[in-house]
Amino acid sequence: MCRHKPPQQGGQFFLVRGWQIRAWYLYFVCFTCEAGVSADAAISRLQEAFDVFQRTPQGQGKLLEDQARVATKPDVMEHPSGEVRLWAAKCLAEVLMIFVPRPPIERDRISSILTLFIEQMGWLTDAAAVNYQHAFDLFRRLTEIRGFMLLFETATPELVLADLVRVTMATYRKAAMALDVSWADNLEQLEALLTQLLNSVLAEADDLPGAVVGLLLDEVKQKSKPAGLVKRVLAMLARRTAAVAVNDYLNSCLAEARNSPSESREELQLVPSAAERSEATLVAVHELYMVDPALVARVLPNLQADLVSKDVSQRRAVTALVGQLLAFCPTGALTRPILASSHPLIVERHRDRLDDADDGVRLAALDGAGAILKSTASISSTKPVPSDCQELLAAGSALVLKVKERSLDPNDSIRMRSIEVALDVAAESMAGYGLLEPALLEISRRILDKKGKVREACANMMSRLYAKHSLPRWISGQLAERWSWIPQQLCEAYLVWNNTGLGQVAQLEEHFEQHILGCGAGMGGHQRGLAYLGFYHSAADRSSNSSQGLALLLSKKRDANEALQRYLDKRIAKGAPLMPNPGDGVLAISGGSIGASPEAENLCVHLEGSSGRTLLATMDGIRDKAFWSLLQLLTSPADSSHHESDKLLDSLKELDRLLRMHSVMGLTPLIRRALLCTWMSPDQVSALLDLWNRRWPEGFQREEESAPRDLATAARACVADLPKFFAGAVHPHADHLVKMATTSAEDAWAAVRALASIAKRKEALGIDNRLVHTAQLGDVLLEAYQMASTEKSAHDPHRKVTQALKLLPDQDRMLAVQSWLVWAQSKLCSAEKVSAFNLASGLFEEDFPGGLFNDLPSRSEFLGEAQSILSRAEAATDIRCAAIEFVAAAGSEDCIVSLLLAPANKEMDQDQIASWIDPQPSFAACSVLHVLRTGRLKISTQLLAKLASRMHECLGPSRPTCDSEKLLEALQRLQHPPGSRVRLANRLRLCVTLPLVFCFSPVRKHREAVHRMLQASFTKAARRMEEPLLEFAIACFIHFLSSAEIFQREVSEPASAFPNSSKICSFLCEALLRSDVQHCMELAWTVLQVCDRTLDFVDREQPASDAVHKAASVLRYIVEKRCPSLAGQVTDGRATKGRMPAELFVARRTSAAQKALPGNDGQGAPEPGAEVGEETAAAETEMALLPAGPVQEGSCTPAEVFQTPKRRASLLKARRPLSPAAPGSGRSVVAAVARPMALTGKSSSLSGASALSSASKKRRTS
């Protein structure tokens, strides 16, 4: 601080707040600033002057007027040093405060002073600068004294005001970019200061200049850093001076963008296009509406008109904006009306945009609808609902139906977006779910959409909704029936995706595991058990297809676990790979089938995708023993040591690490499916058993409370089905199930089902020790059977208790069976006759070579009693059904045909027989079908013919629909026989013959179901290329048709067009061709070959009959009618060489006249009775036309299936047709006799193979 000796001027002093300062000294300080002193000296003297000015009270600066004028001189205000100018500005700010309202400043210097003030904002950009605080104090002082009011005294206040706003925005932008997180408080203080500064200045303006409004709104359009500052300023000015100016500016911008001509490419590179300017303006409208609706009040009518604009881009942009405006609802007190209340017409027009012709407009409207629905849900959750929000609630309710309609939009992006909107709203809160609940079920049906991404979005939506709302309730012990539709829809989708080959099955399994069951969420055993209970209880709805989907899901999981176990056992035992190395090139050539073990091939069935086999081969080559031991530990159902939640989670993390380390993460879907411990463990079963007993599990700490009855009922049903799929987790609790088997009828039925499933899976589990430690298990099961027989929902309890006997050793089992038969025999004359017959049926059903028992006593006594009951017409229906079931289970073929499948007496009075309510025909047919399914009864032509005739009677128009439904269910079970008791050939014979009777069913859905069954059977037969199962199936059908009663009646007529037989053949032909659409012509050609091959054989049982030839002719006629390109084609003699089923056909005897026909050339034919299915030499590559050999009656060897090459010759190879007169054919006379329905007219000159090749090539190309 410079010190100068002050001159004495009369010793005059004045008092300023206790400070005695000589007036001349202050004048000297200010004067020396213009005398060319250094910047530091000037700063020092200005600081002293600032101290004096700061301490001078307002209105007492009369003696300082001259000094104040010195501070306004250009030499001071325009000093080269910025710091000098800063302190000069601070002095001038104090001067303005002292001399208010008339500062001693010349009018022409006001603009320079304001420029000086504005210039000092540059110090505010860096909070770490030395002078930052001085500058901040300067503008705080100017704000307090309203110093910038001087601009209204200048000649051009608009320019100065615009300059102030521009510099303010730039200052805040630089400060926001320069300041880091540690200076966030400084930035907030700076924003508050600048906001107050601008507000104080702009509030005094009568009208905001257009330039100022443009500067402010440009920041809002660009969403820059100062946008928040601008919105705060406009919020304060909305009800004063800013509303009119902002509305006019926005309308002018929209009009300019709408009416501007198209720009050239060079102009677009320099300036924004009209569309970009319009979009930026709409962004500003949205931001300003949220600040205050008054700022855009005059813009809203224009937006309402633009909603129906012819310009698609403008309509799309305005639709997106209006949706956001309608959704905006101010928080706190609703002092301002919402848009839906003030502009109801704009609500209707926006809703109409959901039906717009343009996809982009509909998508924009859908986004707005989602925002509106969120706001509606938020408002509806508040209590009480504000009165001025009723219009918004009504608009939201109307949009729910529109969103549901958009889920069916032709555009897949819009369908997917509607699903996402529903998920966002419904998953946000319970109010949102309640709002969209009427539409969610319909929207969820998009899970069967044709587009994969739509299906995936829908599955994700439902899974997340369940995890948000239903899963927390289930794990807390509450029934969540409200969300039961979600697992049902997911399981139905799983069934459809798996059966139709839509893919994404692995993704759906991941949703089940992650969202539905909550795996990986760190839940305890009791919570995981309740999570599975909720899933099972919701999905196991017998009224829908979800139960089938659930069973398919769990069965695929069980089968994958068994396949992986067998593979791991073989791989670990061998200690070397079971598959070829992918680097050897074998997989690329053969698809991995060469050199792979059966266990590896069986595991490949559960892989999805083209790269799955390669990844499995990569995993097969891993040499890490820790990986194999951990995988075997996790897949073993018998080892429950790792099933505890904490240990299981650690094991899964380690397995994930090993998979990543060995680069086989692509096998995660397979391993996820094969791991049963993630879904069910013994501690979860223990929790379910506690709930069954109406006790809360230990984890709930509710020992004094009883579990709800509904929860106990659901747990009982769940435990009853658990052993089918998770026997390893349930078998440790077998003793507990035995105890529960005698508590009540419902408990007995559930326990018996569970025990039977455990017994069935005992061998698969590899457990040889005794699972049940109850000595009197046989007596307990008998008591449980008696109690379960009274349960209405019980179905076949006698078969379940018989299956449960496998839990006993052989000696104890036979003792239990003998005691059961004694009990049943003692009840034959009592009121429990039905239970006695049923129990005996279950036991004798397993009494055959290969069954559970052998040579049980008392068979004749039960059969005699059953025959006596069936001979009495007055017997009760339930007793007759029990007798029928026993005859089917224990009787011989002749007994079954005579007692159960005999035709009804048509001469009896219709009222007396009451055929339309008598369940005996359908029940008898179902019982015989069940026995055929078990393999106890041998298949014969007579049995099939009689059974088909009885089924045809049950499908008549006078019979109830329930009969056909029972028959259909029994036929569907033929495709899944228990165990391996039924040979593949016999199963195929049943599946392609008996279901054809349903072509006469009057119910369309039954015919369609049977059609799908036939397609599945033909597909499985065609896939086994190493065995000619498809030809075998066609031959069995021809023989079945020839022996059918319908065909026999048509053959016996003098002249017949075979209408019913043709209907059966058409049903079969359509199912066969639809089983493989790409190769349908090849399949049809195969049928024609078998039909022509039949001419060389006769029926083994009736050699003198030509019924099989006529049946083949009917089938050939139908095939040629269905495939006209094959009509009239004669198959090559080499193509018809083959064998027929030895049980059904025998080679035709060739007469002397036939030998003399041209073309036979002395070829010897086999003698009558020549064997048709005899093995040929291994080196023989061509099969003889009529192989010779002795007949072996009743042969059950594999020779019954005719012998053909391992791979059929390609049907695309051209074959030259042989004309009827060509040498070597020898078939003209036979064809003329045995083909009465052959097509007449001009025959084609092309060969069958050539026509087939062309037709197939065209279909494959198209």
Structure characterization notes:
The chain is mainly α. It has 7 domains: 1-104; 106-190, no CATH class; 206-260 and 271-309; 337-448, no CATH class; 464-680, no CATH class; 694-808, no CATH class; 1024-1173 and 1197-1258, no CATH class. It contains 60 helices and 4 strands. It has a two-stranded antiparallel ribbon. Strand 1 (14-16) and strand 2 form a beta hairpin. Helix 27 packs across helix 33 (668-674), helix 40 packs antiparallel against helix 41 and helix 48 packs parallel to helix 50. The termini are far apart. Residues 1-33, 585-594, 906-916 and 1159-1262 have low confidence and may be disordered. This is PDS5A protein. Residues 1164-1176, 1239-1255 have a biased composition (Low complexity). Residues 1153-1176, 1239-1262 are annotated as: Disordered. It is found in: Nucleus. Keywords: Cell cycle, Cell division, Mitosis, Nucleus.
List the helices and strands and how they pair.
Blueprint: E1 14-16, E2 19-21, H1 23-32, H2 39-55, H3 65-71, H4 74-77, H5 82-98, H6 110-119, H7 132-145, H8 157-178, H9 184-202, H10 210-222, H11 227-237, H12 242-259, H13 265-270, H14 274-291, H15 300-306, H16 312-327, H17 339-342, H18 344-352, H19 359-380, H20 390-406, H21 412-426, H22 430-444, H23 452-475, H24 485-500, H25 505-516, H26 525-539, H27 546-574, H28 586-590, H29 598-604, H30 612-620, H31 625-635, H32 645-661, H33 668-674, H34 682-692, H35 709-725, H36 727-730, H37 734-740, H38 745-760, H39 762-765, H40 777-788, H41 797-804, H42 810-826, H43 833-844, H44 859-871, H45 877-890, H46 893-899, H47 910-913, H48 920-934, H49 941-954, H50 961-974, H51 984-991, H52 1004-1023, H53 1029-1043, H54 1045-1052, H55 1059-1075, H56 1080-1093, E3 1097-1099, H57 1107-1122, E4 1145-1147, H58 1152-1155, H59 1228-1234, H60 1248-1261
